[in-house]
Task: inverse folding
């Protein structure tokens, strides 16, 4: 439960209907579907998934959702490295990861997974849902993985600030043919 008046439950995806709701929330928040003003102030998502892809990703590692009753109001997609073939548009991101170093070790030798995408519904932003989704990830995956990695469009300032607040640290800034990105990691282990 978040806040005093909002009853939000956070947990792993349990049913197909939740994946369908994730897709609707994703579509409503795609950079191509929001105004420049909304993108600037509220953020946006860039990758598009299909129900089949989400089901394949979920089979390897269930995503975390925030629900208000039966309605999914936020999601944080779990993408274990074995799922990289399911979303070919993210291959450049994984190529970037292959050249990263974490604690003086190549990232390829670290047990990590990727935040495939995180999104909170309009009307539920600013109420702690984003942080709760990440706490859900930590609760479910900290014993399985050492590190959570993602990349964020540098145009998405709201997301950059939110990831910093949660505890992500910058690993590398890079540009591809789509955008400029900041790769960040959330370390769950003591130094």
Result:
């Amino acid at each position: 439960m978040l806040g005093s008046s909002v009853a939000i439950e956070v947990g792993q995806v349990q049913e197909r209907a939740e994946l369908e709701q994730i897709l609707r929330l994703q579509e409503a928040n795609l950079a191509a579907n929001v105004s420049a003003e909304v993108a600037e102030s509220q953020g946006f998502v860039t990758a598009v998934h299909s129900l089949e892809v989400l089901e394949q990703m979920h089979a390897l590692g269930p995503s975390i959702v925030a629900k208000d009753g039966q309605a999914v109001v936020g999601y944080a997609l779990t993408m274990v490295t074995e799922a990289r073939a399911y979303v070919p548009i993210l291959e450049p991101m994984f190529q970037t990861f292959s050249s990263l170093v974490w604690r003086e070790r190549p990232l390829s030798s670290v047990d990590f997974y990727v935040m495939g995408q995180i999104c909170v519904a309009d009307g539920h932003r600013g109420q702690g849902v984003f942080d709760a989704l990440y706490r859900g990830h930590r609760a479910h995956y900290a014993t399985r993985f050492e590190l959570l990695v993602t990349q964020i469009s540098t145009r998405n300032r709201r997301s950059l600030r939110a990831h910093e607040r949660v505890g992500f640290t910058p690993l590398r800034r890079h540009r591809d043919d789509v955008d400029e990105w900041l790769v960040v990691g959330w370390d769950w282990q003591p130094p």
Summary: The beta strands are 8-12, 64-68, 71-79, 101-102, 105-106, 112-120, 147-153, 169-175, 180-187. The chain has a mean pLDDT of 89.
